[in-house]
Write a structure and sequence with these properties.
By secondary structure, this protein is of the alpha+beta class. Helix content is about 35%, strand content about 15%. The protein is built from 13 helices and 8 strands. It has helices at about 1-5, 10-20, 40-55, 60-65, 85-90, 95-100, 165-175, 205-210, 220-225, 230-240, 250-255, 260-270, 275-280; strands spanning about 80, 120-130, 140-145, 155-160, 180-185, 200, 290, 300-310. The strands form 3 sheets. The protein has a 3-stranded antiparallel beta sheet with strand order 1-5-6. Strands 2-3-8 form a 3-stranded antiparallel beta sheet, with no helix packed on it. The longest helix is centred in the first third of the chain and has 19 residues, at about 40-55. It is globular.
Length: about 325
């Protein structure tokens, strides 16, 4: 039972401490991974925790000089569009572009990209394990590991997968830009950026490899869209951004339950013209997908994954 098991251990730990005379300074914090809002919720809780501690010891938060924010403001990018010979001259090396570098700073969200265990590998086998009559699909995938890369039984493999090209194409179509669009991104806060700042890159590549396009739209993204909307579109987006669980057209009913993505929201409000630099700053950074390694480390230089394929239609009619 999810309701019983959710946060069961920290709840037991807190109850035990309270039985021993401990006093909770603030409520236990938790967040739902499916809401795609965990980082924001944690940031809010962290600020509340810090404020509580400061007050507990009689410290004026203003006197500390600390800048307290419920969440950092999203980045906004300046977008320079390259055309003609400048666009045609752009040479692209995807592995090099994704490798750790100036545009990947060491932080909790992107630290895995600075890990020396990051590598480029080759898929040498990908075969179906199910019989056609089952109507299901389970793939056996074998990966040739680079020299020096090893693993132990029980390890996971994180795979950086691009967004499906049809999804990227749909986003670019909604934005009204051609698939050949080449951009150069700049921002005053380049140290916070996880996008390839200061480089000429096709927008298709940025949207494919650097940002999540298939996660559930967040309240913050909806509030961003409201800035560019008016009339009925603004009214609809404001209804969607209403976090009251009982609201019939609110966030829970219209976004969270059907798992509506930002693209699907944008397609509902075709008259809303979104600034590309603002949109890129509002999109979450692409994360690796972690899979349990199904092979034993007896054959040096190779590992395998056994992956069930999800092929279903979600609450909005979108096929996954």
């Amino acid at each position: 039972n999810v309701e019983v098991e959710f946060q069961a251990f920290p709840k037991r730990l807190q109850a035990g401490l309270e039985r021993l005379g401990g006093q909770a300074l603030l409520p236990l914090g938790s967040a739902d991974m499916d809401s795609n809002n965990v980082e924001v919720e944690f940031q809010k809780w962290s600020v509340e925790f810090l404020m509580t501690i400061l007050k507990r010891f009689g410290v004026d938060p203003a006197a500390t000089g600390a800048a307290l924010q419920a969440a950092p403001a999203p980045l906004v990018y300046d977008v320079l569009v390259l055309t003609g010979k400048a666009a045609a001259a752009v040479e692209l090396n995807i592995p090099e572009l994704l490798a750790p570098g100036p545009h990947w700073k060491a932080d909790t969200a992107a630290g895995y990209l600075n890990d020396p265990r990051q590598f480029v590998a080759t898929v040498v086998a990908n075969r179906e394990l199910q019989q056609e009559a089952t109507g299901r699909s389970t793939r056996h995938v074998e990966i040739q590991l680079p020299a020096g890369v090893t693993y132990r039984t029980g390890d996971h493999l994180g795979v950086m997968m691009p967004n499906p090209p049809e999804v990227v194409g749909a986003v670019m179509k909604r934005l009204g830009v051609p698939l050949s669009y080449v951009v150069r991104l700049e921002t005053a806060e380049a140290q916070r950026s996880r996008l390839p700042v200061g480089r000429s890159v096709p927008l298709f590549v940025v949207l494919s490899y650097f940002v999540e396009l298939q996660q559930v739209a967040t309240v913050e993204q909806l509030e961003m869209l409201i800035q560019f909307a008016d009339g009925d579109d603004a009214t609809l987006l404001q209804q969607y951004a209403n976090t009251d669980p009982a609201a019939p057209e609110g966030y829970t009913a219209s976004i969270l339950k059907p798992k509506r993505t930002l693209l699907e929201v944008l397609e509902q409000v075709p008259e809303v013209e979104v600034d590309l630099g603002t949109l890129l700053g509002a999109l979450p950074t692409m994360r690796p997908r972690f899979y349990s390694i199904s092979s034993a480390p007896v054959e040096a230089g190779r590992c395998s994954l056994t992956v069930g394929v999800v092929d279903a239609v979600g609450g909005t009619g979108r096929r996954h």
